Amino acid sequence: MTLWRLEWLRLVRTKRWIALLGVYLFFGLVGPFGARYLEQIVSFSGGDIAADFPEPVPADGLAQYVSNAVQIGTLVAVIVAAGSLAFDAVPEMGVFLRTRVTSVRTILVPRFVVISAALIFSFLVGTAAAWYETWVLIGTPDTAGVLAGAAYGAVFLCFVVALVAAVASAAPSVLNTVLISLVILLAMPLVGIVDAIGQWLPTHLAGALASLPGGETSIADYYGAAALTVAATVVLFEAAVRIAAKREL
Q1: How far out from the chain centre does Cα 88 lie?
Q2: Containing structural domain, residue 35
Q3: Is the CB of residue 138 less than 8 Å from the CB of residue 56?
Q4: Hey, is 149 helix, strand or coil?
Q5: Binning pLDDT at 50, 70 and 90, where does residue 114 land?
Q6: Residue 215 main-chain phi, psi, to 5 deg
Q7: Which phi and psi (to 5°) does residue 226 adopt?
Q8: Are 176 and 191 spatial neighbours (Cβ–Cβ below 8 Å)?
Q9: Domains: count for the chain
Q10: Which residue did the predictor score with more confidence, 136 or 88?
Q11: What digits encode the pLDDT tens for the residues 32-50?
């Protein structure tokens, strides 16, 4: 059995794919519904409190999806990725795998690719669901904006997996990998408060799907962040390989 097939079976048989797909699909269906009926939901939950919201536009459906998917979806993605990439956290597994390959890269590449592919697929399924439901309930979002936003979101998710891989190569446990990765990801938006910095950060891409369909930003506004994110993804993965190769079990 190859390491590629092993990782695929690990993803399928442990039901991790359900966690990934379920989160994004859920918010893809709920997001546009919430945008369409927000006023009614607030009115019902608030008793006699009067609620007056502007009429929803198609971009609101995607924005609602992104606001939830980026937070909860990224959390689940980090947990699932850490469970796969922190193989040295279980010494017996680390020894078993390392003694059967000539390079740590041989272990990391299948895990990185399979998790990234599953994560991107789940994100795109959720995006398609949000796109369709927005079209049904509110109106037709800008097609080019949705496609570009989805592509930028996929680039961001690859960065997330590479970050987890780099942290996992040095962290002593899966829990530490999750916590350190989340702290780094949470710190980025804080640094990004300064617009001159924020527009270059990977987290800038996470909100592209929320902004592009409504015309708030243009596709070109994300070129710099996309280029830097791709470069950071490559650097982080290579760092993961080098650090893991030097790690003592």
Answers
A1: 23
A2: 3-246
A3: yes
A4: helix
A5: very high
A6: 75, 10
A7: -65, -45
A8: no
A9: 1
A10: 136
A11: 887 776 666 666 655 555 5
